[in-house]
Amino acid sequence: MKNLKILFTSIFLTILITSASAQEPFGSDIIKTSEGDLKVVFLGHGSLMFEFDGKAIYADPVGGSVNWSKMPKADLVLITHEHGDHLNVGVLDRIRKSSTAFVMNRSSAKIYKADNIAVMKNGEEGEAAGFIIEAVPAYNKKNRQFHPKGRDNGYVVTFGDKRLYIGGDTEYIPEMGDLKNIDIAFLPMNIPYTMTIEMMVKAAEAFKPKILYPYHYRGSDMEKLASKMKKVIGVELRVRTIY
Hints:
- The protein is α/β, with parallel strands linked by helices.
- The chain has helices at residues 2-23, 89-95, 106-111, 197-207, 222-229; strands at residues 28-33, 36-44, 47-52, 55-59, 76-79, 101-104, 117-119, 125-128, 131-138, 152-159, 162-166, 184-188, 211-215, 236-237.
- The protein has a single domain (2-237), classed as Metallo-beta-lactamase, Chain A (4-Layer Sandwich), CATH 3.60.15.10.
- Helices cover 22% and strands 30% of the residues.
- Strand 12 (184-188), helix 4 and strand 13 (211-215) form a beta-alpha-beta unit.
């Protein structure tokens, strides 16, 4: 009977652990800022969510494995460009509320219609949902047909004393050298659409973020990236689960 009780206890604990994992299948991190914790959640591929000061901020929310009915409504949504793996009208309709602020490039705003849309171009700065946002270039130099110069945005967002850079879809570009005081960076890596491993390393060397998260990296050799990043002093590479 004692052994049977142990068996039942073991099964019960396994069920509890499995259920907990099912509720939070995404990689996530907590980053300390001067104004409280910033939670970073990787929703899959190029989709991110941030929770800060009681607000939910999404970047390119498309993640196919997400149960959007259980996600918090958006206070702010950032859309880098109009490709289907970055802009999904159905998802935006699910997470929006009457006060949701949207920041998009012009091509995305032609596709998604809503109140409170701010169209930003490369080099512009503004405020939305109480956050300072800078639109920065995101484009391909080599494979220009995928992401031409001047169309798409990357974004720099300030959370307390931390400056966070969302690369969007981009190769390594010279303008990355103009990025200043970046604490946290999200850079894409999947050829031929975005960066090679070598481009990722070059980007890290160019603006030296304190923390670098690769995303949009399906099919990439992350061990090779980690090996090459060892030579980049002062940049912490963090690889998190991407579905």
